[in-house]
Design goal:
- The chain has 8 helices and 9 strands.
- With 267 residues, it is an alpha/beta fold.
- Strands 5-8-7-6-9 form a 5-stranded mixed beta barrel.
- α3 crosses α6 and α4 packs across α8.
Length: 267
């Protein structure tokens, strides 16, 4: 299936990206800042899942940003949209086949760590997959990567060092921590957040881990940055809503864009 998809993508553009970027909630505007070479809607590629989540457009944008040749996913797909784990990671695998070797994953998350505030940016240092089915569960995985990929260094130490320096250059107080993915789409209960805190998670979301697993499997060097849009359920005595997440994502877009631009320049 991937061969057929890459063949179709190649009919739209022969652009060879170096860096692949998944633009999470609030970062979609970054794609428009690039010197755009080509745009391909997911719906133009056979058997590709299409984005249905708010703030997610659903296309690949190829272009130059900060002097780097990039491919951006303007909108990702999530498990909670009803897609299989393999469908969710299809765009990640395609960006690798297009030639990208570095992958920057971004997302919005709920802060579990009590020292975090809404609007904070957290560099992902490691992750926990919680009830998320692996995208590598297939009969034949060896066409893309090894059967049992090592996960001891998912978020490259070299990139983490570079990102810390990028944040200093931007004057941003960058937090760091462990991101946990659940399937969603319901937000967590206070008891679930307590459990995840005990497990060592600093932020919670509904994406990214599955993409990082597929990314390592197909040979990407990975960086992850999360925008903490809210405090996780139970930390405050008030209900959570998708609107609150979107609102903070939009409010923090300028800061988030600034950091990601610097990261792209520096890596
Ligand atoms: N939980 C899960 N996903 C999220 C949250 C949250 O609190 N905020 C943004 N994405």
């Amino acid at each position: 299936m991937l061969e057929k998809q890459i063949e179709v993508l190649r009919q739209f553009t022969d652009f060879e990206p170096e860096v692949a970027i998944v633009l999470g909630s609030g970062l979609g505007g970054l794609a428009e800042k690039a010197e755009i070479h080509a745009m391909v809607e997911y719906s133009q590629i056979p058997d590709m899942p299409v984005s249905t989540a708010p703030l997610h457009k659903g296309r690949f944008v190829f272009g130059t940003l900060q002097g780097k040749r990039v491919v951006m996913m303007q909108g990702r797909v999530h498990l909670y949209e009803g897609y299989t784990p393999q469908q969710v990671v299809m765009p990640i695998r395609l960006m690798r086949l297009m030639g990208a070797s570095k992958l920057i994953l971004t997302n919005a998350s709920g802060g579990i760590n009590r020292s975090f505030s809404p609007g904070d940016l957290m560099m992902i240092t490691d992750h926990i997959s919680c009830f998320v089915k692996s995208p590598l569960i297939t009969e034949k995985a060896d066409e893309i990567g090894v059967r049992f990929p090592d996960m001891s260094n998912v978020y490259s130490k070299r990139m983490q060092k570079s990102i810390r320096n990028s944040a200093i250059k931007c004057g941003i107080d960058l937090k760091s921590g462990v991101y946990v993915q659940l399937t969603g789409p319901q937000f967590e209960t206070p008891a679930e957040i307590k459990m995840m805190s005990a497990l060592g998670a600093d932020a919670v979301g509904m994406s990214t881990v599955i993409e990082a697993v597929a990314g390592i499997h197909c040979g990407f060097e990975i960086a992850g940055v999360s925008l903490v849009t809210n405090l996780a359920c139970g930390l405050l005595d008030k209900p959570l809503s998708g609107e609150e997440v979107e609102e903070t994502a939009q409010k923090s877009a300028v800061k988030f864009e600034k950091l990601i631009n610097q990261i792209i320049k520096d890596i």
